[in-house]
C-alpha cells in the first residue's frame, strides 16, 4: 500500500467511523451472535496474496460489526462509561502514524514533555494538591498509565519494595524472604477486582475489609485490621481506597483512612477511576477532602474526559519511590540528559518498557473541548442520572438501593432477587439496552450508568420505557401463572372432595 492508496483507505475509514457513531442508536447495543460465530466466517489461514482495502473495509461491516457490543451507544448503561470523542480519535490516528516508542526522553522529547504538560494541566483542572505537579518543587508528578489496573499495580509494587527496604533497615537480622512473607495490604470489599488482582501479582495478600452499610470504608475499620496484623507479626504495606466503587460509586473516607495510614506508615493509594472527573466541579469539592495526604492516586481519562481507551492518569507525591523500586538501567537505555530536572524517563514509572504517545490525544482533546466543555460533559451525565433517578422514585414498583452518585443509579424491582434476575434477563434478551447487576448484603440490584458518546434526555426516557414495560410484562406473566396454579388447585380440591364423597357413599352401600 502506497501513500495514495493509504489516503483513500484512511478517508474511507474516517467516513465509516463517522457514519457508525452518528447512527449508533440504530443498532441494538448487544450483538446477536453465538460463541464461535467469527471462526466460521473467516478462513483458517491468512491470504497468500494481498487483498483490496475495499474488500477489507467491506468485511469489517459484514463480519466484525455484527459481533460488536456498542460501547459508545447511549443505550449502553453497564459498568462505567468508556468514552471517546472525535478529537481523541484523531489524536490516536496521529500517534499511530508517528509510531514512536517513548520510553525515554531521547526516544522522542515531544512525547515525554507533552505528557509532563498535560498531566500538570489535568492536575490543575481537577484541583489536586500542588505537590502532584511536575512544576512543583517536590519530587511529585503525574504519568499516563494504560488503565487503573496498571496504576494500582504500580502503587502496590512500589509500596511493597519500599516496605521491604524500610523494614530491613530497622531489622537487619530479618531475612528478605521472611520480610516478604509477612507483608499485607488492605482495601474495601467494595473495591474493584483489579485491586485484589494486584495483590495476586505482587504476591502479597490483600485483606478486603468490610465496608459499612453505606458501602464506605472508614479509618476505624482499617486501624482495627492493622492492629490485628501487627500483633500477629505481619507488616502492613498499603491501603488502596476507592472514590467511586464499582458497585455503587461509594466514596471511602479518605480523611480518616489517611490518618491511620500516617500513624502506621502505610502507603495510601486512591483509586478514583470514575469519580475523579468530578474533582473538577466546585459542587463536588467534598470528594477532594484528604487528597493532600495520599501517596498516589489514579483517574481514568477514558471514563469522563472524552479520551478514548486506554488512558489512565496517575499521580505520585514522591515519584522517586516508584523510580527507585523499578529502575533497571542498561547501557542502551542511557542518554546524556538523564536526571535533569522536570525531564523524567517515564519507563521507570510503569510496568512495561515501551510507551505509547497517549499524551497527544489528551492534548488534542483538551484543546478542542476546553476545560468548560469537559466540565459540562460531567455535569450532563449527572443531570441525566438525576432524570433517571426521578423516574425510579415515581414508580412504586421500584426502590433505590443507594443514593445516586454522579452518573450512576442503583435500583431494583421490589421483591426477591429472582425478580431482579428475571427482569435483567428479559432486557438482555431484547438487546435494546445493556445493564449489569451487583449484590450487597444478599440483595441483588441493577446498575444504570449514563454512558455513550452523546447521551441525551430522550435516551434516558427510552431506557426507562424499556425497563418498566418489561417489568409490567413480567408481572403479568407471573400473575397469569399464579391464577393458573390457583385454578389447578381448585380443580384438585374439587376432585378430592368429589372422591371423598364417592368413597363415603360406597362405604354406606357396603
Mean pLDDT: 90
Tell me, what's the shape? globular
Q: How big is the Rg?
A: 28 Å
Helix content: 40-55%
Low-confidence stretches: none
Tally of alpha and pi helices = 15
Strand content bin: 5-15%
The overall strand count is 11
- Alpha-carbon distance between the two ends: 102 Å
> What is the structural class?
alpha/beta
Walk across the major sheet and give the strand order. 1-7-6-5-4-2-3
Order of secondary-structure elements: HHHHHEHHEHEHEHEEHEHHEEHEEH
- Main beta sheet: strand number and arrangement? 7 strands, mixed
Task: Write up what this structure looks like.
It is a single chain. The chain is an alpha/beta fold. 48% of the residues lie in helices and 12% in strands. The chain has helices at 3-22, 37-41, 53-64, 86-98, 109-125, 148-170, 176-181, 193-201, 219-231, 254-264, 301-304, 319-326, 358-394, 417-430, 457-509; strands at residues 141-145, 183-188, 206-209, 235-242, 267-271, 296-300, 312-316, 398-400, 408-413, 436-440, 443-449. Strands 1-7-6-5-4-2-3 form a seven-stranded mixed β-sheet, sandwiched between helices. A four-stranded antiparallel β-sheet has the order 8-9-11-10. Helix 14 packs across helix 15. The N and C termini lie far apart (102 Å). The model has no long low-confidence stretch (mean pLDDT 90).
Amino acid at each position: 500500500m502506497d501513500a495514495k492508496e493509504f489516503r483513500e483507505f484512511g478517508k474511507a475509514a474516517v467516513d465509516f467511523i463517522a457514519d457508525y457513531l452518528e447512527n449508533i442508536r440504530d443498532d441494538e447495543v448487544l450483538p446477536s451472535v453465538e460463541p464461535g460465530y467469527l471462526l466460521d466466517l473467516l478462513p483458517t489461514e491468512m491470504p497468500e496474496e494481498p487483498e483490496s482495502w475495499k474488500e477489507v473495509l467491506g468485511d469489517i461491516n459484514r463480519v466484525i460489526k455484527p459481533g460488536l457490543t456498542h460501547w459508545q451507544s447511549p443505550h449502553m448503561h453497564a459498568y462505567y462509561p468508556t468514552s471517546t470523542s472525535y478529537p481523541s480519535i484523531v489524536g490516536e490516528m496521529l500517534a499511530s502514524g508517528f509510531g514512536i516508542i517513548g520510553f525515554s526522553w531521547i526516544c522522542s522529547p515531544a512525547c515525554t514533555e507533552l505528557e509532563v504538560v498535560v498531566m500538570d494541566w489535568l492536575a490543575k483542572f481537577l484541583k489536586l494538591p500542588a505537590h502532584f505537579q511536575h512544576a512543583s518543587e517536590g519530587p511529585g508528578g503525574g504519568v499516563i498509565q494504560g488503565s487503573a489496573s496498571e496504576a494500582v499495580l504500580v502503587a502496590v509494587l512500589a509500596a511493597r519494595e519500599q516496605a521491604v527496604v524500610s523494614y530491613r533497615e530497622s531489622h537487619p537480622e530479618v531475612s528478605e524472604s521472611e520480610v516478604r512473607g509477612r507483608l499485607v495490604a488492605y482495601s474495601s470489599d467494595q473495591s474493584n477486582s483489579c485491586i485484589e488482582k494486584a495483590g495476586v501479582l505482587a504476591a502479597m495478600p490483600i485483606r478486603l475489609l468490610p465496608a459499612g452499610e453505606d458501602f464506605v470504608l472508614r479509618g476505624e475499620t482499617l486501624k482495627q485490621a492493622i492492629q490485628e496484623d501487627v500483633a500477629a507479626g505481619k507488616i502492613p504495606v498499603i491501603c488502596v481506597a476507592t472514590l467511586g466503587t464499582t458497585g455503587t460509586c461509594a466514596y471511602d473516607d479518605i480523611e480518616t483512612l489517611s490518618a491511620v495510614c500516617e500513624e502506621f506508615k502505610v502507603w495510601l493509594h486512591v483509586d478514583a477511576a470514575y469519580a475523579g472527573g468530578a474533582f473538577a466541579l466546585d459542587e463536588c469539592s467534598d470528594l477532594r477532602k484528604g487528597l493532600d495526604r495520599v501517596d498516589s492516586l489514579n483517574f481514568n481519562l477514558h471514563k469522563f474526559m472524552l479520551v478514548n481507551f486506554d488512558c489512565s492518569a496517575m499521580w505520585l507525591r514522591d515519584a522517586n519511590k516508584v523510580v527507585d523500586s523499578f529502575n533497571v538501567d542498561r547501557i542502551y537505555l542511557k542518554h546524556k540528559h538523564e536526571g535533569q530536572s522536570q525531564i523524567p524517563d517515564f519507563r521507570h514509572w510503569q510496568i512495561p518498557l515501551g510507551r505509547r504517545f497517549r499524551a497527544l490525544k489528551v492534548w488534542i482533546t483538551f484543546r478542542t473541548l476546553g476545560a468548560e466543555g469537559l466540565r459540562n460533559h460531567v455535569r450532563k451525565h449527572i443531570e441525566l442520572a438525576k432524570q433517571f433517578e426521578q423516574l425510579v422514585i415515581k414508580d412504586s414498583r421500584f426502590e433505590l438501593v443507594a443514593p445516586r452518585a454522579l452518573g450512576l443509579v442503583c435500583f431494583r424491582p421490589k421483591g426477591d432477587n429472582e425478580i431482579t434476575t428475571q427482569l435483567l434477563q428479559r432486557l438482555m434478551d431484547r438487546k435494546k439496552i445493556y445493564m449489569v447487576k451487583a449484590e450487597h448484603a444478599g440483595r441483588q440490584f441493577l446498575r444504570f450508568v449514563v454512558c455513550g458518546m452523546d447521551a441525551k434526555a430522550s435516551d434516558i426516557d427510552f431506557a426507562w420505557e424499556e425497563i418498566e414495560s418489561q417489568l409490567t410484562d413480567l408481572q403479568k406473566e407471573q400473575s397469569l401463572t399464579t391464577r393458573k396454579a390457583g385454578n389447578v388447585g381448585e380443580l384438585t380440591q374439587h376432585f378430592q372432595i368429589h372422591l371423598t364423597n364417592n368413597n363415603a357413599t360406597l362405604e354406606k352401600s357396603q
